[in-house]
């Protein structure tokens, strides 16, 4: 596979170590509600390759043949010893929307496919650019819909890696947005961030921030549901008298009213200071969000209601403004409508476009993106798959020799060439373990041949195109020699 980086839309990524990833994994499990079992696999359902075939209604007899001369493979490994069972040297990474589910309903073959892999202890992980819920809640929902036994170890969603930034921002104030302001706050607080503000909070404290009617009567017009962590900043948000008569969100001018003789530093401290901004999932109130984000990107050191003079010198984002993090770059995704719908990536492009106008194209917007197709997501998946495979094999009595370097291939099954497929192709062979990544595109989601005509070598071009997830897995099993040609 070609590994050109054509499709990486964003300017920067974080370089991280496997230690960080391990930390993230343990953090995720803080919220694990469904189970505490450390393995990827639990209580396998009664399913065999032949029941997989009949459940899928395959017309060909790929799985209905007796297991070929690979007797050590199609046996349930739970009670087998290393001499009786050959551990798979491959694993799967599945996208969710457009591969396992469409409009929250299971796609044909999805449940059976996961059950088959679970039963035979073939490792897999779900990698979604979706978000907006706690990992444990989303996994519980998926288990309900797919009849599966997954834990949060099987799962990575768009904002899962934000937890890695906890050491840096735990005690600072961050601004978050997404589909639901309060839910975004709840998630980030659940991750451990102690002072979380939304554009809704800023709007409530100073409605003049957004001089249009649409938001005013809507959800964001509600009262602030609970006090913010820092009392000083809470005063600022409410803009009340406790702040010494100053309207801290609005007093952006140098030497504002009633402040004569006071030093600039002191006045700045009376403003709410934001140190980082996070987009968790697809925002709804784009206009308010863009306004608030743009204000902060031009602010003095992230103080709300200020403007940095450095901007006038062309030193954009050069005055301690908050760092900006996106969790998902998908421009489009497969929803209920027959044509693809815009996702978080479209919001990001809108912000980038306005930034370009404001800065007269002089400076690209500096930001960090997580999620597919970015390397960190694949790195995380590989780390989780290797670790859990290793733990399980160790428990089964396998030696270090068998475990180390044992994962040779990961099959990424996705519906979006620009995220799932481009990311897998780009990451192929470049991870810490040198694992090969094979990209399998399915036709049950956003992919539309009429829209995408990729030439050879394009990073978005999949290794294989299959009808659906069951066919994709079948192709991979055939490729591994686990079923007959
Ligand atoms: O908002 C969700 C969407 O962008 C994609 O989700 O599961 O296809 O990565 P998924
Ligand atoms: Mg998808």
Automatic annotation (TrEMBL):
The keyword Signal applies. Residues 223-266 are annotated as: Disordered. The keyword tRNA processing does not apply. Transmembrane segments: none annotated. Keywords: Signal. Residues 223-244 have a biased composition (Basic and acidic residues). GO terms for cellular component: mitochondrion. It comes from the Eukaryota. InterPro entries: CDP-alcohol_PTase-I, HAD-like_sf, HAD-SF_hydro_IIA, HAD_sf. NCBIfam families: HAD-SF-IIA. It comes from Cercophora samala. Residues 1-24 form the signal peptide. GO terms for biological process: glycerophospholipid biosynthetic process. SUPFAM superfamilies: HAD-like. This is HAD-like domain-containing protein.
């Amino acid at each position: 596979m070609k590994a050109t980086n054509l499709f990486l839309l964003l300017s920067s990524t974080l370089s991280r170590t496997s230690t960080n990833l391990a930390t993230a994994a343990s953090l995720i499990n803080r919220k694990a509600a469904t189970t505490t079992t450390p393995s990827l696999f639990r209580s396998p359902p009664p399913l065999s390759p032949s029941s997989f075939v009949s459940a899928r209604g395959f017309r060909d007899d790929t799985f209905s043949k007796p297991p070929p001369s690979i007797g050590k493979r199609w046996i349930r490994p739970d009670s087998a010893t290393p001499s009786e069972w050959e551990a798979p040297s491959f694993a799967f990474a599945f996208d969710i929307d457009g591969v396992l589910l469409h409009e929250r309903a299971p796609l044909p073959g999805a449940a059976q496919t996961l059950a088959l892999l679970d039963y035979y202890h073939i490792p897999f992980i779900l990698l979604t650019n979706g978000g907006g819920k706690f990992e444990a809640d989303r996994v519980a929902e998926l288990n309900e819909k797919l009849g599966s036994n997954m834990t949060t170890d099987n799962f990575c969603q768009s904002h899962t890696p934000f937890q890695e930034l906890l050491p840096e921002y735990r005690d600072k104030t961050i601004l978050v947005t997404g589909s639901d302001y309060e839910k975004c706050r709840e998630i980030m607080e659940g991750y451990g961030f102690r002072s979380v503000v939304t554009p809704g909070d800023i709007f409530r404290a100073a409605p003049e921030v957004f001089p249009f009617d649409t938001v005013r009567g809507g959800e964001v017009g509600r009262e602030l549901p609970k006090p913010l962590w820092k009392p000083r900043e809470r005063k600022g948000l409410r803009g009340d008298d406790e702040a010494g008569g100053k309207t801290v969100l609005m007093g952006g001018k140098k030497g504002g009213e009633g402040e004569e003789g006071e030093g600039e530093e002191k006045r700045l401290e009376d403003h709410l200071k934001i140190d980082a901004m996070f987009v968790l999932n697809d925002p709804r109130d784009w206009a308010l969000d863009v306004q608030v984000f743009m204000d902060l990107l031009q602010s003095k050191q992230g103080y709300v209601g200020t403007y940095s003079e450095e901007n006038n010198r062309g030193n954009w984002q050069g005055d301690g403004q908050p760092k900006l993090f996106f969790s998902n770059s998908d421009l489009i995704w497969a929803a209920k409508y027959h044509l693809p719908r815009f996702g978080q990536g479209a919001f990001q492009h809108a912000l980038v476009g306005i930034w370009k106008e404001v800065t007269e194209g002089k400076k690209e917007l500096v930001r960090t993106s997580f999620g597919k197709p970015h390397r960190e997501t694949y790195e995380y998946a590989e780390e989780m798959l290797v670790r859990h495979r290793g733990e399980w094999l160790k428990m089964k009595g396998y030696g270090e020799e068998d475990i180390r370097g044992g994962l040779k291939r990961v099959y990424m099954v996705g519906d979006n060439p620009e995220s799932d497929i481009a990311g897998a192709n780009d990451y192929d062979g470049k991870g810490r373990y040198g694992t090969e990544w094979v990209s399998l595109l399915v036709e049950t989601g956003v992919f539309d041949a009429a829209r995408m005509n990729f030439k050879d070598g394009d990073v978005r071009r999949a290794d294989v195109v299959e009808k659906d997830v069951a066919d994709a897995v079948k192709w991979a099993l055939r490729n591994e020699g686990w079923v007959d040609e």
